[in-house]
Design brief:
Layout (H helix, E strand, L loop, with lengths): L3 H38 L5 H53 L21 H13 L2 H9 L3 H9 L3 H10 L2 H12 L20
Helix pairs in contact: 2-3, 3-5, 4-6, 5-7
Length: 203
């Protein structure tokens, strides 16, 4: 009996030590797992600024490309509008030339010539819109070839800025004649041919 009690005590102490060691090992393993999980979940601090900067650069590049595409599309639309306006202008001038063909001479002598004021006003408004859509440097030479009366009526249907830009691209003489016509100076209009006064025979 004297030998059995110390052996039981030693066994209990060994079991308690083993249990304590196991608990310490489990706690150490759990702590290591927690630290590893934190390291995996935390983003690398050094790469965050680089990623943010890259995103900003990519966004800036995308915006610039979109702006360039929009500018190119706007330029294409302007060019198409100018071509369409030029085509409409050519058609309008051709129609006007056909109206002034020599076939009018075959009319009866009693028929009165058509007055320019009797022409539809929307015709001048359409021409005004066409010239406003064109570039002033290209519109000025064509505009200057029109009759002065037509120039005056078309110019009065245009915006003042558009008229000024076209006149700036005209020749000095053409711009001066149009300016005087717009101001209402009759001297700017071409003088009509007056019939010669018959000379009375002396008595």
């Amino acid at each position: 009996m004297k030998f059995t009690r110390p052996s039981m005590l030693l066994g209990l102490m060994a079991a308690a030590a083993a249990l304590s060691l196991g608990l310490h090992m489990e706690a150490a393993i759990a702590s290591a797992d927690t630290a590893a999980a934190k390291e995996k979940s935390a983003p690398p601090p050094a790469k965050a600024p680089a990623t943010r900067m890259g995103a900003m650069l990519a966004d800036d590049i995308a915006k610039r490309e979109a702006q360039k595409k929009a500018e190119a599309r706007t330029a294409d639309l302007r060019e198409q509008a100018a071509k369409a306006a030029q085509a409409r202008l050519d058609a309008a001038l051709k129609a006007k030339q056909q109206q002034n063909t020599p076939s009018d001479k075959t009319a009866s002598p009693d028929a009165k010539p058509k007055s320019k004021d009797s022409e539809a006003p929307d015709q001048y408004e359409a021409l005004a819109r066409i010239f406003q859509a064109m570039k002033p440097a290209k519109a000025a030479p064509v505009f200057e070839q029109l009759d002065l009366g037509v120039q005056t009526r078309v110019a009065r249907n245009m915006r003042e800025r558009s008229t000024a830009l076209i006149m700036a691209s005209m020749t000095p003489r053409g711009a001066a004649r149009l300016s005087m016509a717009l101001a209402g100076n009759k001297e700017s209009l071409p003088a009509e041919a007056k019939p010669a006064t018959p000379v009375k025979a002396g008595k």
